[in-house]
Amino acid sequence: MPSQNKSICPECQGKLTRKEITHDVRFHGQLHTFYEVPARVCDSCGAVYLDAAVLKSMEMAFKKHYQPQEYQKVPMFSYSQLAV
Ligand SMILES: [Zn+2]
Fold first, then answer.
1. Rounded to the nearest whole angstrom, what is the distance from the C-alpha of residue 49 to the centroid of ligand 1?
2. What domain of life does the native source organism fall in (predicted)?
3. Could you tell me the distance, in angstroms and rounded to a whole number, from the CA of residue 5 to the centre of ligand 1?
């Protein structure tokens, strides 16, 4: 049974709602995006909380070299090239 305080945001005491989110993780400096990730999101401050089991699953996907569903190109900017 889920404990009562698990649905309350520790930051602002707001209500946490279960949602599927997109979560970016860096493994060894490389960006990996996981989507359809089950999370609890605060209705008030927007803080996102992931269960330890969810974090572990994502780490396993990396360690076991799971094939990603897709690749996306990410725009990269050099700050030194920005016109200030
Ligand atoms: Zn909150």
1. 10
2. Bacteria
3. 13
Tell me the whole-structure pTM to 2 decimals: 0.76
Ligand 1 centroid from CA 82, angstroms: 35
Total domains present in the chain: 1
Summarised one tens digit per residue, pLDDT across range 7-48 is 999 999 999 999 999 999 998 888 899 999 999 999 999 999
For the residues of the chain, what is the DSSP string, one character each?
---GGGGB-TTT--BEEEEEEEEEEEETTEEEEEEEEEEEEETTT--EE--HHHHHHHHHHHHTTPPPS---------GGGS--
Here the CATH number for the domain that contains residue 56 is: 3.10.20.860
Cα(44) to ligand 1 centroid in Å equals 5
Which domain does 12 fall in, by range? 4-69
